[in-house]
């Protein structure tokens, strides 16, 4: 009897240790994600996902990292596979917990990445879904800076559609949700900046929006403000290069 009790204690203790290890790994991966360190966070979330594919945090953050890692580190021919996996995982996360803002944010991000290499027709077809997902994320978490960033890019993309693309929206897809203007894009990027002032990419996207509007003075101001921010991640390093290229156009 004593041996059985000892054995049971060992099993329970072992399971507790495994659980603690997963919790520690998750805490580490989540911290890396908050620091925009996708390269190191990605393999940890992959491992956690394999250990428990029903944990909504593992699923949604794995989706997020698939989008980010695919964009920065995957070979060009493999990028779409990463984005499609991100889309699948985000949809799964939403099924696991529909009221999770990060899951809807991850879904909107995956759609955005897929759209980068899509035809105009596919972009238009995805426009409503992307807007619905980012709006849902903001309703669930009004302080989710990344969601406002995606919303800003959505408004700017719709505002930049040509006459033929806008006609396709109205004729084949029944129009798009209200918005889709440069002014709406500016409001969204300003909100993202207010929530994440040290993230350079928000400021670059605002500068780019002003540039597309023909407001070169404002574009130059925000590109310069972005460059005053110390790059802290791959997003910022890219944003720094983009800001420098934009300023060359403006000077």
Give the termini separation.
84 Å
Question: What is the alpha-carbon Rg in Å?
Answer: 21 Å
Give the oligomeric state of the chains in this entry, treating copies of one chain as homo and distinct chains as hetero: single chain
Query: Structural class, from helix and strand content?
Result: mainly alpha
Q: How many strands, which pairing sense, and closed or not: the largest β-sheet? A: none
Task: Give the strand content.
Answer: under 5%
Count helical runs.
Answer: 12
Q: What's the β-strand tally? A: 0
Instruction: Categorize the overall geometry.
Output: globular
| Helical content class | over 70%
Arithmetic mean of pLDDT: 88
Listing every helix as H and every strand as E from the N terminus to the C terminus, the arrangement reads HHHHHHHHHHHH
**What are the low-pLDDT stretches, counting only 5+ consecutive residues below 50?**
1-19
């Amino acid at each position: 009897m004593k041996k059985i009790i000892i054995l049971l204690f060992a099993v329970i203790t072992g399971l507790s240790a495994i659980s603690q290890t997963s919790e520690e790994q998750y805490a580490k991966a989540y911290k890396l994600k908050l620091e925009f360190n996708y390269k190191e966070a990605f393999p940890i979330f992959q491992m956690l996902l394999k250990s428990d594919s029903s944990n909504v945090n593992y699923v949604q953050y794995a989706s997020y990292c698939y989008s980010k890692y695919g964009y920065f580190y995957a070979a060009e021919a493999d990028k779409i596979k990463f984005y499609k996996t991100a889309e699948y995982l985000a949809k799964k996360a939403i099924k696991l917990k529909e009221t999770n803002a990060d899951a809807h944010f991850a879904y909107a991000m995956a759609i955005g990445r897929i759209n980068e290499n899509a035809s105009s027709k596919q972009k238009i077809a995805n426009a409503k879904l992307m807007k619905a997902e980012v709006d849902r994320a903001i309703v669930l978490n009004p302080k989710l800076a990344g969601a406002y960033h995606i919303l800003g890019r959505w408004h700017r993309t719709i505002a930049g559609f040509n006459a033929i693309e806008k006609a396709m929206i109205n004729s084949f897809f029944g129009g798009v949700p209200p918005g889709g203007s440069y002014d709406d894009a500016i409001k969204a990027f300003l909100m993202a900046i207010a929530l994440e002032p040290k993230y350079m990419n928000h400021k670059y996207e605002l500068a780019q929006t002003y540039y597309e509007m023909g407001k070169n003075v404002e574009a130059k101001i925000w590109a310069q403000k972005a460059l005053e921010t110390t790059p802290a991640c791959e997003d910022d390093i890219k944003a720094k290069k983009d800001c420098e290229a934009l300023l060359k156009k403006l000077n």
